[in-house]
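About this split. The held-out portion is used to measure sequence recovery: a designer receives only the structure tokens and must propose an amino acid at every position. Recovery is the fraction of positions where the proposal matches the reference. Here is one held-out target exactly as it appears in the evaluation file.
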């Protein structure tokens, strides 16, 4: 038997009293945003090797709740090696506070090129298609400027899964 107890917080007040029918937000689609981000990459191993990471991301809004991104990611150089790649993700997201704050979940393929000192688990593979799962929050602090933080999980079929924590700024055009 399982029990679950939780507490929630409503990010926005409903526009009217009574039952809520449909959405309460007149969200503006994301549009097009080009972002640069930097942070930390941590390999999920016994030693949790880490390195500086950076990324460039292009985001396009496909409506109120859906975005798509294409990213160039450099996971940095740890003592295990380095990994870079190109990711394409589909996003489900929602906007709050007059479309100034956004929360989203993204997923998609991450085509990597690797250089590991030793990687028997991957069968010596240097180029791998991995999965990329991301949680992200963004705040539009000016008409064309957006601050974003993201937690990316790289999912591989071998022992080099990693977490990439990024923060940066984007320009909406």
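Reference sequence for scoring:
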């Amino acid at each position: 038997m399982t029990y679950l107890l939780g507490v929630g917080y409503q990010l926005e007040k409903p526009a009217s009293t009574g039952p809520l029918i449909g959405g309460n937000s007149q969200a503006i689609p994301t549009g097009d945003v080009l972002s640069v981000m930097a942070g930390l990459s941590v390999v999920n191993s016994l030693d949790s090797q880490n390195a500086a990471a950076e990324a460039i991301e292009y985001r396009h809004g496909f409506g109120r709740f859906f975005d798509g991104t294409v990213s160039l990611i450099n996971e940095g150089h740890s003592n295990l090696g380095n990994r870079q790649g190109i990711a394409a993700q589909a996003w489900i997201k929602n906007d709050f506070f007059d479309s100034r704050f956004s929360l989203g979940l993204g997923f998609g393929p991450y085509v990597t090129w690797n250089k590991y000192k030793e990687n028997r688990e991957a069968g010596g593979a240097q180029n791998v298609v991995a999965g990329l799962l991301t949680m992200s929050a963004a705040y539009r602090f000016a008409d064309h400027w957006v601050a974003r933080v993201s937690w990316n999980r790289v999912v591989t079929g071998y022992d080099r899964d990693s977490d990439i924590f990024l923060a940066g700024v984007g320009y909406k055009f």
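Annotator remark: Strands lie at 32-43, 50-61, 66-78, 81-96, 101-116, 127-140, 145-155, 162-172.
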